[in-house]
Write a structure and sequence with these properties.
By secondary structure, the chain is an alpha+beta fold. Helices cover 24% and strands 28% of the residues.
Amino acid sequence: MKKPLVILLGIVLSIGMLWCLLQVRSAKPAPGGASQSVQPEGSPAAPPPLGSTGREPANAPLKPEVTAQTPPTAAQANNAPAASRAPWPMPSLTRPLPQLPGIQIGDREWKILGTNDVVNDTGKQTVLVLRDEVSGQLAYRQASLRFVLKDGENYEAFIAERSHAKRLFVNILHGDIAVDAANIGAEYTALSHDPRVVKVDFIPLVVPARLK
């Protein structure tokens, strides 16, 4: 009678040890230290935590970006509003004309500041002073204009039409006119837009050579 009980007790103990062994194996961690779990197919993935490589929530504060400040290019300076530019210092002039509007010469805006009377070996010369409104560069010219007309136009008749112009010189290639400094900017603009005019320029200064 005792022998069947011993056999039954041994079978029960064997089953219990086998069950404990299976439990220990199922709790063993997966390689790499991360626990493996099976996610049902089609279920949404868990959102990544803040600071991870995933996208942060839309209401998270934005981080400010700091970029190095570089000086503006010439094109940018040319396109900058006039109010944002620092005023250029006014040079010393015999006849300042601060009220005159700017004029367009090429791709730049220039302003006629006024005139200076210069005395040299040939006498007194009136110098027209202009300033590039982007770079602040000053330019010096005569208070006169040289223009070229289209073929077939009459220079003498063309100059006679202009109330602010005084004839200086005319040939078959070009005409020269003197204009008061207060009107020369408007005259330059008018000639630039006249369909009969091919080209117009301020006449450069003639610096007399000193005899030794």
